[in-house]
Amino acid sequence: MQGWYVDDLNSESGIMSCLNRPVLTIFYQFNPWHSSLGGIQTVIFNFIKYAPDEFKLRLVGTSVDSSWPIGQWINTELAGRKLEFLPLISVQNDNVRKHIPTSLRYTLALMGRSLASDFMHFHRLEPTLATMNWSGEKTYFIHNDIQKQICEGTGNAILWGQFPFLYFSLERFLMRQFDQVLSPHTDSVKFYQQQYPRLASRTSHVKNSVDSQIFYSLSSDERKKKKCDHCQSIGLSPDTHLLLFAGRLHPQKNPILAIHALAALNSHTSRLKPHLLIAGDGELLTATQLEIDRMGLSKQVTLLGQLNFRELADLYRLCDAFVITSVFEAVPIVALEALACGTPVVTTRCGEMPSIITRHNGVLCNESTPSAIANALSKILMHPEEFPIAACTQTVQPYLAETVIADVYQQMWQRWEKEQDKRLQRTPRPKIKM
């Protein structure tokens, strides 16, 4: 890791509007140089990579080893952008939930600090317990379908799902501090506007984004060659049908369903040679491996572990179909990434997927069952001509990070300029001695 340390940047002095530049501080419990795959991580990465030079960027995250000293600001770079990074706590593996929730440890580490800035972005609710009295514009990003995640209950997918009353009591207390509430999920936007009428005008929709510099398609011939080379490299026949699942091995993502769907696909037809690649890590890793073994699918499933963005993009570009088996989502960014790489998507009916999937870029399953997913996969694998690369890539044009992120920053800049004008108007004129 490169960078040099700044001993004392905990005070607000010198932070607000540094050198006449607005300061954005992003709060989330991860380390972008050693992180798991995840939609929130991707959103933050894009907000840093595509930030205009006019903004100064800070990220309050986590440490993974001694090279990231806890409690000290580090001047470094991410995606070519200068960034001040503050590790608050140590998290060795953010794929796996701990006995003491990481969000709680992160929140406690924020207590007693003053890290206010012109703009503050929060991607979890709990840390904002520490920020009630901080000055500056606060934006809360809601990344999931809250009604399914909290209200309807999802087993052990999330701890708050077991205590919905406590969650909404905490939320009611904290929501009043936010100047903006943004969500990529239209139903969540409506839900929050109804839940908090006083915040309705501050609650709005924002698109999730995909980085076209990393996630892009190949020509049909290039794709076939890449797939053939990859199959040979892992000991598979060139005519193997490659399926890809990517995400945390977590109850929300439901990877076991993808394995059951593969077994159902085997029983539906013998004309196909499916092989499932699973990219990711998490608390269900052992259960996933045991289920693969129990169903006798060890020769048809490869567990790849955690991959970085570029490794995952290479897989998107050569696989025949991408599989989403989530219990709930808002807009799964992996779906946008797969489509940007020209790969059709088979998905459960979650989040915004019904408005994204068309009859030419994938199949939306009305039932979250192995048979329904297997039928959808069979349709794509047996009739790939019905799901052309161009149809997939065209879908994601409104979601390109360079335009989505630019729009958000443009609005932030306009609000900052207005605030600067107000400050100038409030500044008393110097008295002239006669």
Give a brief description.
By secondary structure, the chain is α/β, with parallel strands linked by helices.
Notes on the structure:
The chain has two domains: 4-209 and 400-418, Rossmann fold, CATH 3.40.50; 220-395, Rossmann fold (3-Layer(aba) Sandwich), CATH 3.40.50. The protein is 35% helix and 18% strand. It is globular and about 80 Å long. The chain contains 14 helices and 15 strands. The protein has helices at 39-49, 102-110, 146-151, 164-175, 186-195, 220-233, 255-268, 285-294, 309-316, 333-340, 353-356, 370-382, 389-395, 401-426, and strands spanning 4-6, 23-27, 56-63, 73-78, 81-90, 119-122, 137-141, 180-183, 203-205, 241-246, 274-279, 301-305, 321-324, 345-348, 362-365.
Reading off the top of the CATH hierarchy, the class of the largest domain is best stated as: Alpha Beta
Give a count of the beta strands, DSSP E runs of length 2 or more.
Answer: 15
Helix content: 25-40%
Number of domains: 2
Question: How are the SSEs placed, and which strands pair?
Answer:
Blueprint: E1 4-6, E2 23-27, H1 39-49, E3 56-63, E4 73-78, E5 81-90, H2 102-110, E6 119-122, E7 137-141, H3 146-151, H4 164-175, E8 180-183, H5 186-195, E9 203-205, H6 220-233, E10 241-246, H7 255-268, E11 274-279, H8 285-294, E12 301-305, H9 309-316, E13 321-324, H10 333-340, E14 345-348, H11 353-356, E15 362-365, H12 370-382, H13 389-395, H14 401-426
